[in-house]
Design goal:
The chain is an alpha+beta fold and 124 residues long. It is built from five helices and three strands. Strand 2 and strand 3 form a beta hairpin.
């Protein structure tokens, strides 16, 4: 799918699709980008191709950010309901305490620490 095979009309069609927020999977984006490196576009199309790839990556990032905000909302709501919530990043991982009692520790991410504390509270 390099520019030399797409031509200008193909690039315009792809740009139209990207403008409509049609985004390929990560694997497909990698495959297409690798193909463009293996079969470089014409020099006059390089900027346009680079711009398409960058815009598609930005759009994919935005979609991932919006993917599941419900879980983060649930975590924040849980934290708000706790007495004296404390969250600390230590050398050995994240520690979460409520009411001065350790609820989870050694978790690799803040989300994991909150999830572990929520699960412990629910007996899971």
């Amino acid at each position: 799918m390099s520019a030399s095979r797409w031509g200008v009309s193909g690039l315009c069609a792809l740009r139209g699709k990207l403008g409509e927020e049609v985004v390929r999977s990560r694997e497909e984006q990698i495959r297409v980008l690798a193909d463009d490196f293996a079969n470089p576009p014409e020099i006059y199309q390089m900027t346009e191709i680079a711009e398409l790839h960058i815009n598609e990556a930005i759009q994919r990032g935005r979609e991932l950010e919006r993917a599941d905000p419900g879980q983060d909302t649930e975590r924040l709501n849980w934290m708000e309901r706790q007495c004296f919530p404390e969250l600390h990043k230590l050398d050995q991982g994240w520690l979460l305490a409520t009411d001065q009692v350790c609820r989870s520790s050694g978790q690799p991410t803040m989300r994991a620490a909150i999830d572990a504390a929520m699960n412990a509270e629910n007996g899971q």
